[in-house]
Structure formats: structure tokens, C-alpha cells
């Protein structure tokens, strides 16, 4: 496959890639970073599952990356939904319930407070790969949800997208979705899963999430790329930087001269592309970085 085809696929389709290079430690000079942040006019905060880890929401990599015996990322695919919609719905029911009980942590709150304080002087955009809704619940306003939202459904027939906060989302999922590794498969009949209520439709609903192998919404992608193209500073928070297209955003910004600072508990394949690296739980490092 030629390089341009790979990069054009990466531009729109959610894929996982292997580490590009060995990460190396960058500057971790917090006072210097804060000076640069002060003079920035356009700031992007790009977040991933790691920012919600301290709220008790498992990431896809590391110890929390399994649900039952399945690797979580393998259930977030159109193929898994075709093969077993009930198993995938149990997984998403579990994720909806966990996220609904979780609270935004100091990392989410620091971002929302930073926007509230400086959002009139600076353009501050939060681009998240997360689907848990915690940025909104923390108070973030200018938010781009790249991969959808756990509390939205899409009809597989008429394609209608609706907000749905029901718990459980349907009767058959009540008490289901336990992550216990000894539970195998799912015996919920498809007719008992969530279905479209639109007159004359009745199609099977699916989570309105961009699954691995699917295209991102072009309008959402354009908005994110526009913010990335002009920002002076980008904070990359709690993302493994292996899920494309989001993984290419910050390295591209760094390559055109924007200052990029990474906040993670461990180096990622992109760390060596960036100017700053602040190691540690972002519930601790972000409030410090975003405070006056
Ligand atoms: N909360 C969510 O909404 C959620 C949860 C799991 C997966 N996902 C989805 O899975 C895909 C995974 O990509 P990803 O890069 O976002 O996540 P990921 O699971 O691939 O990586 C998580 C990253 O967060 C880091 N991390 C963990 N705890 C941290 C902490 N306390 N502070 C700072 N960093 C921490 C890890 O080292 C890792 O690099 C995305 O498409 C995303 O939509 C979302
Ligand atoms: Zn429908």
C-alpha cells in the first residue's frame, strides 16, 4: 500500500498503530511551560482515556484494557457488533453505567476552570477521544468529541442519532454487562436490545461511537483539524498516541512549530516528537500546569 493511501486512511478511519520510535524524555520545566502558555493565543487540549482513569474509568491499554476475557478494543468494532450485538451492547451498557457513576476528577476540572478563566482572551479548544461525557460534566464548553458519546444512540436503519441517558438503556440489559472474566458470550435475544422508536422504523440501535475501522464524522474531523492547524500550544493529556487519526494531530502541530506538551504516566510513541513531557497522573500535573 502506498504511503499516501496509508495517510489518507489515517485521516478519517479510526485505527491503532504500533509505536513509531522509542520514546525519550523531553523537557519537564514547568515554569518555562507556564510562561509559554501565558503568552499563547490559541490553546488546544487533546485528551484521551488516561484523563478519565482517575475517575475510575478503565483505559483500553494497560491493566484495565480487558472486559471479561475480551480485549476492550476488539469489542469496539463493527465486526463485533455484527457477530454479537448483544455482547457488544452488554459491554457498552457496562461502560455507560461505570461512566454515569464516575465524577470528573481534578484534571477535567482544571481544564474547565482554565477555559472559564481565560476563554475570553484566548481561543481554548478541548478535543477529546473520550466518549464518557466527563469533560462536559466538569463544565468544558468548547469541546470536540472525536469518537462520539456513550449516551448517544444511532439507528442502524434510519441513522437517527438521539441522546439517551436511560439506565438501563433497555429492560433486557438490567443487571447485565458484569466484567467478570468467567462470563462467556451473551444470551440476550436481538429483539430485546434497544430498538428505534420512530414510527415505521424499529431498527436496531447501536452506540453512537466511532469504532475501530470506521470513519470519523467529516465535520467533526474538520473542526478538530482547524483548531490543530492554528494553535500556538497543544497539551496532549492521557492518550497513548497510537489511535489514528487523533495520534497524528499533535506530532503534526509540533512539526509546524507549535509548542506541544505531553501529560502521561509513562512515555508514549510520540513523546520524543514533543517539547515538554510531564510525567505523572494528570489529576496532579494538569492543575499545576493550568494554574496561574
Ligand atoms: N474514558 C473514555 O471515554 C474511554 C476509555 C477507554 C477507551 N476509550 C477510547 O479508546 C481509544 C483509546 O485511545 P486513548 O489514547 O484515548 O487511550 P488508551 O487507553 O490507548 O491510552 C491511555 C493513555 O493514558 C495514560 N494514562 C493512564 N492513566 C493516566 C493518568 N492518570 N494520567 C495521565 N495519563 C494516564 C496511559 O499511559 C496511556 O498512554 C480512544 O478511541 C477512546 O475513544 C475511551
Ligand atoms: Zn430508526
From TrEMBL:
Deacetylase sirtuin-type domain location, by residue? 23-292
Subcellular location, principal:
mitochondrion
Subcellular location(s) of the protein: Mitochondrion
**Binding residues annotated for NAD(+), in chain numbering:** 48-67, 129-132, 238-240, 264-266, 282
| Record text on cofactor binding | Binds 1 zinc ion per subunit.
The catalytic activity of this protein is classed by the Enzyme Commission as: 2.3.1.-
Cross-referenced SUPFAM superfamilies = DHS-like NAD/FAD-binding domain
Identify the keywords attached in UniProt to this record, alphabetized: Metal-binding, Mitochondrion, NAD, Transferase, Zinc
Q: Output the Gene Ontology cellular-component terms.
A: mitochondrion; nucleus
UniProt remark on domains? In contrast to class I sirtuins, class III sirtuins have only weak deacetylase activity. Difference in substrate specificity is probably due to a larger hydrophobic pocket with 2 residues (Tyr-92 and Arg-95) that bind to malonylated and succinylated substrates and define the specificity.
Protein known as:
NAD-dependent protein deacylase
Q: Which organism is it from?
A: Helicoverpa armigera (Cotton bollworm)
Give the organism's phylogenetic lineage.
Answer: Eukaryota, Metazoa, Ecdysozoa, Arthropoda, Hexapoda
Amino acid at each position: 500500500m502506498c504511503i499516501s493511501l496509508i495517510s489518507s486512511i489515517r485521516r478519517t478511519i479510526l485505527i491503532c498503530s504500533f509505536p513509531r520510535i522509542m520514546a525519550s524524555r523531553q523537557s519537564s520545566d514547568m515554569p518555562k511551560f507556564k510562561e509559554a502558555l501565558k503568552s499563547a493565543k490559541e490553546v488546544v487540549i487533546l485528551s484521551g482515556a488516561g484523563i478519565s482513569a482517575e475517575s475510575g474509568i478503565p483505559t483500553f491499554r494497560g491493566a484495565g484494557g480487558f472486559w471479561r476475557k475480551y480485549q476492550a478494543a476488539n469489542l469496539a468494532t463493527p465486526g463485533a457488533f455484527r457477530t454479537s450485538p448483544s455482547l457488544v451492547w452488554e459491554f457498552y451498557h457496562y461502560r455507560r453505567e461505570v461512566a454515569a457513576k464516575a465524577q470528573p476528577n481534578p484534571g477535567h476540572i482544571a481544564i474547565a476552570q482554565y477555559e472559564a478563566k481565560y476563554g475570553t482572551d484566548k481561543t481554548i479548544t478541548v478535543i477529546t477521544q473520550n466518549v464518557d461525557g466527563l469533560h462536559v460534566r466538569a463544565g468544558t464548553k468548547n469541546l470536540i468529541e472525536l469518537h462520539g458519546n456513550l449516551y448517544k444512540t444511532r439507528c442502524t436503519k434510519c441513522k437517527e442519532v438521539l441522546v439517551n441517558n436511560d439506565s438501563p438503556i433497555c429492560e433486557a440489559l438490567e443487571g447485565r454487562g458484569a466484567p467478570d472474566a468467567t462470563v462467556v458470550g451473551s444470551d440476550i435475544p436481538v429483539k430485546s436490545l434497544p430498538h428505534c422508536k420512530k414510527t415505521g422504523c424499529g431498527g436496531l440501535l447501536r452506540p453512537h461511537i466511532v469504532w475501530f475501522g470506521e470513519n470519523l464524522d467529516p465535520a467533526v474531523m474538520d473542526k478538530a483539524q482547524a483548531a490543530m492547524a492554528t494553535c500556538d500550544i497543544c497539551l496532549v493529556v492521557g492518550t497513548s498516541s497510537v489511535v489514528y487519526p487523533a495520534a497524528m494531530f499533535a506530532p503534526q502541530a509540533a512539526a509546524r512549530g507549535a509548542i506541544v506538551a505531553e501529560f502521561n504516566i509513562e512515555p508514549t510513541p510520540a513523546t520524543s516528537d514533543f517539547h515538554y513531557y510531564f510525567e505523572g497522573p494528570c489529576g496532579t500535573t494538569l492543575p499545576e500546569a493550568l494554574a496561574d
